Fold:
Amino acid sequence: MVAVTDDRPRILTVGSETPALVSGDLDDDDTLELAMRRLITDQVGLSVGYVEQLYTFGDRARARADGLRTVGVAYLVLTREVTTTGRWVDWYHLLPWEDRRGNAGSPVPGLMSGLERWAGRDRERRRRVQLSFGIGETPWDGVRALDRYELIYEAGLAAEWFVDHGEEPDDRDRFGEAMHLDHRRVAATALSRLRGKLSYRPVVFELLPETFTLSHLRRTVESLAGQKLHAQNFRRLVERGGLVEGTGRMVTTGGRPAELFRFRRDVLMERPQVGVGRL
Structure:
């Protein structure tokens, strides 16, 4: 479950120690989606609206004591943050290298040097690091969030790698807050999916109140994209694309009046791809 609060993307977790995503076993459920909705209601007391199936996971961490491996089907749920029995965790506490709004490089000390040591003189490894993290003239691609986590895991820099291999990590949260089993991989997959969908689906409006300022909309997109956007260019993109419509009502933000807008749902009938552009 994903929300954006105070310009920070957040994920709802359960568990008193290591954060975990809401999860559980199939019961007498007619469909996987109904099972997912039941688990959310049972574990955190919420009913949810927007959901989409994300991916199927069957990593080593899911092996049972009898040697069989379970398969998990993950869903992406978009909502607005409310008080629940769960705990909302900052997405970028889990994947801190993904937030580039205040730093053009990696905000995690030691991460890139760790990856460089792992790559050594291996040309393929060095190429993967360059592509994933946008080194040199290679541009940063926000949609590669899963690729970056996979690389960090493979390099033995994620705490989950040690757990999966029966070892004790030297610093469990050195490169982002560790999660239960493969749940941080699920979180990275969700971030890649959501960033990709921003360009062609109006998913960002699922995270906003019914009315909002254009500045609020832009900051919400920036929080998900993990990078700053040019304010005037973004405004022109949204207005020319017919994504929003003014309400005629004004609010005061930072001492200046700003108009409240709402999502213009008729745009869904006008063209097949509706989003805020490639980020």
